Amino acid sequence: MTPDPITLPQEFADAQAIARERLGIFKDRILCYSEVGSTNDIAGTFAEQGVDEGLVVLADRQTAGRGRLGRSWASPSGAGIYVSVVLRPSAAAARLVTIAAGVAVTDGIASATGLSTHVKWPNDVHVSGRKLAGILAEGAASHVVLGLGINVQPAAYPPDVAQRATSIEAELGRPVDRGLVLADCLAALASRYRELHENRGAGIVEAWRMRASPMLGRRVEWESAGERHTGLAENIDDDGALIVKVGAGTLRIRSGEVRWL
What we know:
Oligomer: single chain
Strand order of the largest sheet: 1-2-3-7-6-5-4
């Protein structure tokens, strides 16, 4: 059963009001919950019921937050931003939604805090060699639910997460405004999503490549047909697939598990 939403906390309401003209499709409909299993699940239910794109689902805490391939996403209360949005992109735009979201999150964090971050294929935002944010796109024929998890404050993460995660405040050494981070990330996402629908995906791909420069050229490992393979991550193609150099040739990896070595 879907819990009842709460009044949007003031830190978020104030920032949303200030940023309203930049929020595009996200300016009018934001549902906030004190605790949910997963914001993607709540947003997915509304999407299946036919809600228009632009719905924003925000939670202070998730008890069953997840990332790609079913991995759990630590979502302690008050420490991060756990938000999902409902999109109804064209087939062409849907191919680059995750890439566009990665660029938007780096843009939003930089605008709100001044922190420079980079992207790692397919859906992570990193800084100082640690994961700062993750993106999860889950779709059906008629919609895409795009989830964003952004670590804002240092928190008591599980040991395996603590070794590879960081937060905006840990990197900057000072408090930041969660409301401003959310508003600027949503504004950036609205702008990049609009670019996709204006057939300007090439600019988004190029922006992603620039933000991925610390990661490209690194060795990656993946499994195919029961065998483990390695290669050098060279780039992404115009559809967002990872291009890996293997020997004298290259392979195109569209989905699945890739481990960065």
